[in-house]
Description:
Elements: H1 25-40, E1 57-60, E2 63-67, H2 80-93, H3 101-105, H4 108-121, E3 125-129, H5 132-143, E4 149-153, H6 158-167, E5 170-174, H7 179-189, E6 196-201, H8 213-222, E7 226-230, H9 245-249, E8 258-262, E9 272-276, H10 278-287, H11 289-292, H12 299-314, H13 317-335, E10 348-354, H14 356-368, E11 371-372, E12 374-376, E13 386-391, H15 398-411
Bound molecules: 4'-deoxy-4'-aminopyridoxal-5'-phosphate (PMP).
Protein name: Aminotransferase class I/classII large domain-containing protein
Keywords: Transferase
Organism: Thalassotalea insulae
Amino acid sequence: KVVKAPPSQQINARAFDIRDFDNYPEVKQFNQVKALLNKCGVENPYFRINEKVAGNVTQISGTQYINYSSYNYLGLSGLEEVQIKAKEAIDIYGTSPSASRLAAGEKPIHGELEQKIANFIGTEAALVCAGGHSTNVTVIGHMFNSNDLIIYDDLSHNSVVEGCILSGARRIAFPHNDTEKCEQIIKENINNYQKIVIIIEGAYSMDGDLAPLDKFVRLRKKYPVLLYVDEAHSLGTVGKTGRGIGEYYGINAQEVDFWMGTLSKALASNGGYIAGRKSLINYLKYTTPGFVYAAGITPANAAAAVASLDVIERSNERVQRLQKNTQLFIQKAKQSGFNTGPSCDTPIVPIIVGDSEKAIILADKLFKKGVSVHPMFYPSVPLGEARLRFFISSEHTVEDLDTTIRVLSESI
Ligand code: PMP
């Protein structure tokens, strides 16, 4: 069925050359970023080629940099034990699942990984999709529809927002971490929708702060709403043994309906998961478009995530080192007079410097002095709150952190 746009929205193709991509408003907006970088007189910080494993250090054009641009939080990407398991999986199963898992793509390592994730978090079951971003898009897009309401934190990741749009549900954002406002939205809408879901993240990737999960769980107890938590940055990094924000707040895993996470960060792989009750996971397994109509995660990626979970389960030593490094970095940054914003108890530490140009130039200066860190600026963060975003790793040495603070102080 062809749906025609109303006349007011029809574009006159002759007045607007659709093949002149530089004339698209969105392309013009994107070109402004390039213009800003040029104005700052800096090297393009994007798509730099990292020639080896990116851990606490990375090699770019043959030079070593102290690295804060990768979320290899526990240093497990590059760990021999993990690499051996990934290589073994290739030897046994090949390099591709060669089909949707529903058809002929299912390998023993897939089920093993899902069981391991479920056990680690404490849920009945889990489902692994081939990408973290696509997990949010397809699961949110699939689970909710135009009869539903999605209430989400206004600092939510793009993948959450895209999933909300795809679903066709009504969406209302609440101010970051504002549970009172969230409750008010629930109260106002409680009888108007078939399903209401609150979507939050464990750790927020721009500010490095945590969601007050305990308060959201209280809302879920008080009202008939679902709770969806994206643990992309909190699994493996937060909580005494790295089990995430649930462990941090002492919350039983059953008190959240959807535990979402990615394998690309602490778990040194690539892919995404949803963990929860068996009935939910089984339904998703047979019906979620991004799972059913897509090839599964590769055997090597599944094996890398299994091996990473093995390392984390065996000892919380890396998790503890990561948390110690983060506290040390925040403390040293504050002592040197830097604004680390609301970051706490997550491995993401922003150094907020103000305007976009300042952040871009500062990141460039750091790079020239051997520190790789990316600037974040409007529209990724509010105007006037441009920052450098540091991803801390368990593998950073105290010397790495000291050098970085010294170079920052010299360059500001
Ligand atoms: N959710 C959040 C909160 C994220 O920060 C990211 C990626 N940075 C994703 C989902 C997507 O995960 P992936 O990069 O593994 O696709």
